[in-house]
Backbone:
């Protein structure tokens, strides 16, 4: 079979229709997991392969750096090298750097580095609040305005019409906005939205610039088109001019950035704007099991509003899998501990850590999960792509690779990369845990990138690899590290994992507090849950906790979106009482029944804290205060040496448990929940010596 036909392999008839449609407008309107991203990457590769367009003439855009990176990887795998796949911002940044001298002058400009500081100065000048919180709100509001093409003059009227929850009197917000723009102009810096505005303006106002650009780029593709803002649409229109070689794909039910100005309007109106467009609807869901698909259909089935009008019923194509699990917990740490244990079980069953994700509504929820995973010695990465290339070991490694690239050398790319990284801490087998492990994971991820590049481009050498890393760093596309992903629902869009944990599903968090009372905002929150559910291929867990902290008032209610979803005969559907009623997830945490009785009164232990301490919360504490103080001091020192937060070494609860139970040997130490083999290896000798008063321990 020739390569062209191979590109049509594994496509269903509708996907194929979109792939083979002639150059011109194409719109794929379809639900999650139906193969939209697959379809457009195949379409690009197909057009290139047939010679309808040169790879360099295609510009594919999407909304996150991660998604753009994903697209580049898929395109390369399909043999379409040289296609530009970028975020709107990255594309605009490149174009502007190129055109700027011609449309403005030779004086260079910089991207604004301390945006909040500028907003703060502006707020100060007009007498608005300059508290950190207010400044963040003001900055978001300015971003919304710019994304929505609203000028400071128009802001008060438009904000009123759009029922914006303005961070201060609208007139004052408008003044801050106007002053911010002036300050920015005076210091010759641009913010992210300016990149887009100036790009559009350069093309709109300079026919020579537009001519050159349109000659270079002839074919446009947009993924996740439901999240385009008016500003981005204006850039897209400027790119297109009066041409119509545009392929868009999207799912109106996954619109989750309206708060930032995104609107599914252009997606839903595409065939009105281009009546001759090829429009394709997909409803076969290839990503998820029928169990997950059925839940997704029920979540979005209750939606209202315009996006819901475009709703498609997904039909699951994969073999059946487990039913989604629901579980309720007393408090957040208990929820996180149970999730970590469930993850441990999945890992033991052979699910790779990189195929597991914990998704939450707001980033602050991440911390308790970081802690719970650290306690289980489970590697994880907090999503926020830029962090990978910002890590010191990665910067060090890139520097070393650049130096090595300048020296003569031979051999396979990945072997050479390994050799360069070994002195930096890359070993054959992973080190036990903590900071050295994280460092190792980063280095290993770089080796994987080298392997990936060597497969796609066998002639690639060290210099080419160093260049690839620079490009990725610029586009902030991190490689996948072998760890559980912790990410917000927003950051998870377009991605997929074998196992997904949706956590913290309580009123006030999902829907988020400030959405309450605004029907449209609540609908967006529902779509977020839909996005979350549809990230799972097989295993899906939905959990919530009745109070924030152990022993707190259990006044939280589970999310309204779960009503009718939790099976009626499910224990979590009943009023909450005590532990152990939450089905599989908490059964998994019943590691050792003996550990679950109070060593004081012999009664059952309720709550994570009690389990950890091995006694009821109100049974008298027999903590050795002096020992506890020594343990704390030791922990501070270790954490400082390892450059990790103290809880990564031991949590407060674990320290207290040690100070109460005073384990004299290893057996006593591992009997304390939270202390596994890895912690025993690393800290066991120290802790036992501390307990026995013989610290520091003898070391050979
Ligand atoms: P989202 O709305 O979440 O962005 P999507 O519509 O872009 O989803 P893809 O990511 O393209 O969906 O595809 C989902 C999964 O289904 C991927 O793993 C993809 O490889 C697989 N897939 C897509 N189409 C087919 C097909 N025809 N046969 C088999 N697998 C497919
Ligand atoms: Mg997609």
Residues:
């Amino acid at each position: 079979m020739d390569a062209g036909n191979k590109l049509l392999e594994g496509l269903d008839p509708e996907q194929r229709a979109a792939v083979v449609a002639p150059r011109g407008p194409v719109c794929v309107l379809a639900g999650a997991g139906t193969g939209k991203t697959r379809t457009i990457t195949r379409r690009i590769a197909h057009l290139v392969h047939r010679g309808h367009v040169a790879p360099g003439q295609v510009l594919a855009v999407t909304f996150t750096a991660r998604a753009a990176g994903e697209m580049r990887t898929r395109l390369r795998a399909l043999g379409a090298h040289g296609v530009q796949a970028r975020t709107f911002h990255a594309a605009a940044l490149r174009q502007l750097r190129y055109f700027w001298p011609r449309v403005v002058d030779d004086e260079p400009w910089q991207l604004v580095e301390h945006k909040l500081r500028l907003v703060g100065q502006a707020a100060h000048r007009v007498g608005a609040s300059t508290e950190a919180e207010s400044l963040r709100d003001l900055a978001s509001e300015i971003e919304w305005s710019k994304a929505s093409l609203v000028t400071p003059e128009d802001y008060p009227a438009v904000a009123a019409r759009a029922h914006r929850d303005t961070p201060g009197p609208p007139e004052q917000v408008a003044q801050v906005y106007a002053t911010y723009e002036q300050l920015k102009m005076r210091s010759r810096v641009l913010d992210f939205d300016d990149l887009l505005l100036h790009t559009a303006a350069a093309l709109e106002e300079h026919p020579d610039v537009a001519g050159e650009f349109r000659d270079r780029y002839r074919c446009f593709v947009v993924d996740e088109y439901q999240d385009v803002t008016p500003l981005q649409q204006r850039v897209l229109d400027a790119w297109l001019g009066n041409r119509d070689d545009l392929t868009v794909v999207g799912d109106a039910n996954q619109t989750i950035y309206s708060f930032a100005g995104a609107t599914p309007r252009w997606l839903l109106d595409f065939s009105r704007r281009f009546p001759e467009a090829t429009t394709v609807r997909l409803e076969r869901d290839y990503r998820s099991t029928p169990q997950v698909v059925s839940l997704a259909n029920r979540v979005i089935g209750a939606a209202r509003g315009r996006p819901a009008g475009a709703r498609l019923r997904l039909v699951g194509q994969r073999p059946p899998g487990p039913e989604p699990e629901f579980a309720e917990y007393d408090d957040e740490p208990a929820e996180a501990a149970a999730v970590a244990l469930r993850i441990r079980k999945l890992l033991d069953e052979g699910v790779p850590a990189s195929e597991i994700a914990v998704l939450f509504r707001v980033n602050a929820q991440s911390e308790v999960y970081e802690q719970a995973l650290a306690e289980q010695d489970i590697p994880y990465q907090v999503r926020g792509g830029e962090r990978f290339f910002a890590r010191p070991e990665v910067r060090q490694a890139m520097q070393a690779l650049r130096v090595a690239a300048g020296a003569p050398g031979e051999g396979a790319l990945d072997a050479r990369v390994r050799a360069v990284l070994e002195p930096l801490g890359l070993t054959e087998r992973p080190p036990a845990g903590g900071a050295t492990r994280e460092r190792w994971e980063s280095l290993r991820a770089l080796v994987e990138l080298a392997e990936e590049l060597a497969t796609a481009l066998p002639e690639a050498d060290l210099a080419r690899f160093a260049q690839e890393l620079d490009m990725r760093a610029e586009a902030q596309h991190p490689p996948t590290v072998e760890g559980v992903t912790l990410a917000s629902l927003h950051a998870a869009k377009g991605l997929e994992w074998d196992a997904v944990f949706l956590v913290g599903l309580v009123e006030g968090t999902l829907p988020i507090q400030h959405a309450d009372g605004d029907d449209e905002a609540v609908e967006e929150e529902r779509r977020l849950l839909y996005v979350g559910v549809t990230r799972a291929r097989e295993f899906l867990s939905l959990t919530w906790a009745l109070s924030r902290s152990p022993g707190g008032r259990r006044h939280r209610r589970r999310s309204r979106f779960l009503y009718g979803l939790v099976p009626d005969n499910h224990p979590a559907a009943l009023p909450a009482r005590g532990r152990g009623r939450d089905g599989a997830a908490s059964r998994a945490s019943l590691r050792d029944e003996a550990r679950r009785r109070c060593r004081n009164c012999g009664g059952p232990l309720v709550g994570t804290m009690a389990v950890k301490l091995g006694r009821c919360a109100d049974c008298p504490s027999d903590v050795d205060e002096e020992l506890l103080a020594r343990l704390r001091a030791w922990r501070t020192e270790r954490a400082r040496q390892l450059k990790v937060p103290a809880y990564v070494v031991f949590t407060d609860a674990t320290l207290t448990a040690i100070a109460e139970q005073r384990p004299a040997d290893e057996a006593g130490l591992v009997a304390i929940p939270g202390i596994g083999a890895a912690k025993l290896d690393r800290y066991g000798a120290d802790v036992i010596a501390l307990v026995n008063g013989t610290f520091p321990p003898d070391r050979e």
